[in-house]
Design goal:
By secondary structure, the protein is mainly alpha-helical. The protein has a domain at 3-69. It has 5 helices and no strands. The longest helix is centred in the last third of the chain and has 32 residues, at 101-132.
Length: 133
């Protein structure tokens, strides 16, 4: 049974669906004071965006990490990923008419930026140690 659970936990589809439901649910909550269907639209938009960002964030951080060296490798990839994510989230939510844009994107942006920083550090720290030798 643990093998099936491990496979499920490692599945990209599961990660994307979890991001869709969790961050889409957050967006509905963040916009709950506005008349329907605004909260539902915001939730759907954020869910789709979070699913897509989850799918591509790992590969973006990996690609950016290869482009930098030294200490810049530790901060530049997550910063660039965060700024790119924030730009995408703000523009798409503005275009879709989300009433509470900053509240809507705060949690998803914090989660994705934290993931980008931690993942980048995990793949970069070994390269930095090897470079120092």
């Amino acid at each position: 049974m643990s093998g099936k659970l491990k496979a499920l936990a490692g599945s990209s589809i599961v990660h994307v669906l979890f991001a869709f439901l969790a961050m889409g649910g957050w967006a509905v909550f963040a916009n709950r004071m506005h008349p329907m269907p605004r909260p539902l639209i915001a939730g759907f938009v954020q869910g789709v965006l979070s699913g897509c960002l989850t799918l591509f964030l790992k590969s973006v951080v990996e690609a950016l990490s290869r482009r930098f060296s030294g200490l810049t490798r530790l901060w530049a990839p997550p910063l660039i990923a965060c700024l790119g994510s924030a730009t995408i989230l703000i523009v798409i939510h503005a275009l879709s008419g989300t009433p509470e844009i900053l509240r809507t994107i705060a949690v998803p942006l914090l989660v994705s930026s934290s993931y980008a920083a931690i993942y980048n550090y995990s793949i970069s720290s070994g390269r930095l140690r090897n470079h120092e030798r």
